């Protein structure tokens, strides 16, 4: 049912439904909601029917489409050979529709003639139906004449449970298409989060979407006032796409993506005891547990057959600038604290592996390079936005000094989490990838041949994020910049260059003292093999008796990149 038809019938509230519709032209529509148990009269029989309400670009000629659920309720028997559809609506009520008769109608410009017989019958019996059934009268009158149907005004005509379901919808009202314009409440200063504004690398600056320096974003420092204002106006339309705290994460729809944990042996389990934590790390775990509980990402559990321990690892923040030994300012992501991680090694060893492919980094970087404008986006705690199937949530149980908890959303550490997340991102951006955006896990790189082109592409990506519930981390999003770091490489209009921060890490490794150290160094250096001449020749002998000598040669080659 088109949204315009539903509104003419007086409906403004619809039951929430979590699925998408793929139309004949392969376009994807997200339903506004659902109307349940609508009384649909066929002949002399009323058939309760559920209608999925969809917002259409223009109202179709046939406003209602009755699908397979209706045919099942109506007891339809389809005879393909004779071209007839028989509806068994009751004990003595059968109706037969001849499809071939419709096909015999003449066509003009490829369109069939049709006869409004049902409309004529409806007009003939409208007054009679209105007298006998007040609900039917209310549904068929125009809003201007009869007004919108309100639940409190129809208590006297609620004769059954089916009628009550029409007004007991739990869903929220449909947000108007004008939501893209944003509201003042979205950027309310009272709701503004408290954020720490760190020093930014050269070429970047803070701009603010709210009043009194609230709701910051990171933009290109070289934008002129007109370009900056144009960018901010567009960004203000997409408040729900930008996340400033964990509470902003609503999660992707389970119909879009759900993480499953399939085990090789379903009867197998593993229960590990908690590990000791020093007072500082114990406080980190406590804060993380409280934060995840408040956001509804975890919940207490006591009877899981899988229990994993927690440990803490260093946590990096957004990009800031630090000085190296040469007093050069190097853009880097510094360690700002610790974060809690779960040791799922035993669970991962028992899990069936998901072999969904990740993009080739070199090919993605080649497509991304040599553009004048970029917008580098990053998902807000990306994995936490993907729901876990209810049957598999108990397998994510972890133990800590404050109890045992399980995840509702996909945590870090699961072996198949990257594949699940990449699959989710491809399902969201499949028609935009390689045209205006490149996606690798939770890193999204939007590009354009000009400021207006890149801004238009950015708006399409942000709109898609809002439609699917994907939230971006404001602190790691850089808008309308000339260059940026993508997967350890510097991307700009010049092409692909090395990241100085990575070079600093390798230079500070020191001389290898064992084969393990050589392998560690080669792992770092191999990331930039495209920039080092004869890399394979230098590295080929690095694990033989001349390991130290050869690695020193490679060290010098790496140092030259800086």
From TrEMBL:
<dbReference type="InterPro" id="IPR053134">
    <property type="entry name" value="RNA-dir_DNA_polymerase"/>
</dbReference>
<feature type="domain" description="Reverse transcriptase">
    <location>
        <begin position="337"/>
        <end position="491"/>
    </location>
</feature>
<feature type="region of interest" description="Disordered">
    <location>
        <begin position="168"/>
        <end position="192"/>
    </location>
</feature>
<dbReference type="InterPro" id="IPR000477">
    <property type="entry name" value="RT_dom"/>
</dbReference>
<dbReference type="Pfam" id="PF00078">
    <property type="entry name" value="RVT_1"/>
</dbReference>
<dbReference type="InterPro" id="IPR043128">
    <property type="entry name" value="Rev_trsase/Diguanyl_cyclase"/>
</dbReference>
<protein>
    <recommendedName>
        <fullName>Reverse transcriptase domain-containing protein</fullName>
    </recommendedName>
</protein>
<dbReference type="InterPro" id="IPR021109">
    <property type="entry name" value="Peptidase_aspartic_dom_sf"/>
</dbReference>
<dbReference type="InterPro" id="IPR043502">
    <property type="entry name" value="DNA/RNA_pol_sf"/>
</dbReference>
